[in-house]
Write a structure and sequence with these properties.
9 helices; Bact_solute-bind_prot3; Solute-binding_3/MltF_N; alpha/beta; globular; 5-stranded mixed β-sheet; 13 strands; Glutamate ABC transporter substrate-binding protein
Amino acid sequence: MKLRKASAAAAAALVLALTATACGGDNGDDNGSDTGSGSGGGDKIKIGIKYDQPGLGLKEPDGTFSGFDVDVATYVAKELGYEPKQIEFVETKSADRENALARGDVKFIAATYSINDERAKLVDFAGPYLLAHQDLLVKADSDIAKGTDLNGKTLCSVTGSTSAENVKKDIAPKAQLKEYGGYSECIAGLQSGAVDAVTTDDSILAGFASQENYKGQFKLAGLKLSNENYGIGVKKGDTATVDKINAALEKMVSDGAWETAVKENFGPADYKNEPAPKIGDIVK
């Protein structure tokens, strides 16, 4: 008799457990991949950005984030249904961006992510949302005004970057190259006179030049040595999210928020930005 009671109790417990599981449902995986309202139950969305690029993606000492990419990502997330408090910004270094999307570590990436054919084989892109160009940053009183003026000068870029090598090969063969581990070191070298110019995307250079401790010291040469179409990377095949992000970017431009973000993040460097690009308009 006792054995039958125990078996019945166990069966009842099993039924209750199965019922609870069925009713509980699935709130989505923990990487915030749901692009629904985002307003219920404290769901979060994970977004990949850079942590070390002033004016674009920077983690401040107090743990907050600033920059144009951050502003764009925050605007897009809001259009997807997420308030700022529901956003978790994740550092995604250039070499790991495709893997981060493939693993589902982040829902999308806004991190000076230039659209090109090779990357488009691995991820899908929304945008572009900014057209940048390779340029030079020089001291405010520098006489460097064109690429050939770099002959006999010292040009700095980051180790592993092809920017400086392209300049030396195609424009100024007598330029002396100096490589550092990061752009902040190049900028410090420019400030001290150890180098005469720094080269990378003009948006990145403008972001550094806009920092409070550098204001007025540097200027952009205004050269357009390449076209860099910044897009928002999304996991390959997630066309629904691409469409939603594109709609958000179009709205950001039409309501003036895009222009405001450009001025706030790059204005102090007198950055001559291109007009907001049209969705899908890739400038080669």
